[in-house]
Amino acid sequence: MQTAEQLSEIEHFVYRLFSDDITGHDYYHMRRVARLAKYIAEKEDANPFICETAAWLHDVGDEKLFSDPHVVIQEIRDLLDRLSLTKQQIEKIKQAMQDVSFRKGKTPVSLEGKIVQDADRLDAIGAIGIARAFSYGGAKERHLYHEELDNHTIQHFYEKLLRIRDKLHTATAKTIAKERHHIMQQFLEQFYQEWNFPSIENRG
Ligand code: ADP
Ligand code: NI
C-alpha cells in the first residue's frame, strides 16, 4: 500500500470517530495537528510519516473522550495491521501515540512523541486556541471573564495557554509559537480595554 493510501485510510478512520465531537477534539483538530506534526518533522529531520500518523491518532483512546478506550485502541491495532506497515513503523507510531495520549503533561520519550505533543500544544494557542478556549468554556457553562469569581475562561489563558510557548520541545514549534503567543497577548489587551470601556481618559 502506498503512503498516500495509508494516510487516507487513517484520515477516514479518524473522520468517522470524531466527526460529531464538539468538545474541541473534532476531526479538524486532528487534521491541524497532523499537518503541524508533518511540517515540524520535516524541519526537524524526524520521520514525517510516523509523526503525521501518530498525530492523526493522538486523541484516540483518551479516557475523557471515549467511554471505553479499549475498544477504540483495538480498532487502531486492526487499522494499523490492515495498512501493511512494517513492525518497526507500528512500534514507532504506538510509542509516539502513547507518549502523547497516555502521558499527558509529561515529556515524551521519543522525538516523534515530542513533535506530536508540540503540534497538539500549538493548536491550543493563537487564534484557534482562543476560539477553542471559549468554545470549551461555553460547553462547561463558564463565564467569559468575571471580576469576583474565578473559574472563568480568561483564567485559562494564564494557567495554561500563555505558558505553552515555554514548554515546547522543538525549535520549529517555538518559531511557530511566537506569533500565536503574541496574538493571544494582543487579544487579552484588547479584551480588557473593551471590558473597561470607557477608560478613565475616555470618559466624557
Ligand atoms: P488535548 O486533549 O487536546 O491535549 P485538552 O483536553 O486539555 O487538550 O483541551 C482541549 C481544548 O480545550 C484546548 O484548546 C484547551 O485550551 C481547551 N481547554 C481545556 N481546559 C480548558 C479550560 N478550563 N478553559 C478553557 N479552555 C480549556
Ligand atoms: Ni489534541
What report would you give on this structure?
This protein is mostly helical and 204 residues long. The protein has two domains: 103 residues, Cyclin A, domain 1; 81 residues, Methane Monooxygenase Hydroxylase, Chain G, domain 1, CATH 1.20.58.1910. The termini are far apart.
Record keyword descriptors for this entry:
hydrolase, hydrolase activity, Methane Monooxygenase Hydroxylase, Chain G, domain 1, 204 residues, Cyclin A, domain 1, binds adenosine-5'-diphosphate, binds nickel (II) ion, 2 domains, single chain, HD domain-containing protein, mainly alpha, 9 helices
Beta-strand content bin: under 5%
Instruction: List ligands, each type once.
Output: adenosine-5'-diphosphate, nickel (II) ion
Order of helices and strands: HHHHHHHHH
CATH architecture name of the largest domain? Orthogonal Bundle
CATH superfamily of the largest domain: HD-domain/PDEase-like
The unreliable regions are none
Number of strands: 0
Give the number of helices.
9
The gyration radius over C-alpha positions equals 19 Å
The total number of structural domains is 2
- Helical content band: 55-70%
CATH level 1 class label of the largest domain: Mainly Alpha
Shape: elongated
User: Would you tell me which CATH topology of the largest domain applies?
Assistant: Cyclin A, domain 1
Give the CA-CA distance, first to last residue.
71 Å
